[in-house]
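Session log. Operator J.P. requested a structure for one protein chain; no other inputs attached. Running the standard single-chain path with token output.
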Amino acid sequence: MSDDRIAIRVFVAGRVQGVFFRACTAKEAEVRGLHGWVRNRQDGRVEAHLEGPRPAVENMVHWCHQGSPSAHVIQVDTEPSDVEGFTRFEITPTV
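Structure written below.
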């Protein structure tokens, strides 16, 4: 079986801090078998690095447009990233 893992960096703007967005993102990523991280940014956005099979990553990006139940997502931006070989998904410190 070939390794068709991709990586995408996601930036989510709106009411996404203080509403369990990171915790829900980590849970949803784990359900999809994704690895990487999610963190708050000082500019008010949430940033995530998602690695995994293309369909799962694309599905997770779609989820980010809705986010956690208390979130109000205004904008989601993505950019390609390098697969770094993470072995789990974690919440990391704010940058």
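Operator note: The helical segments are 21-31, 54-64.
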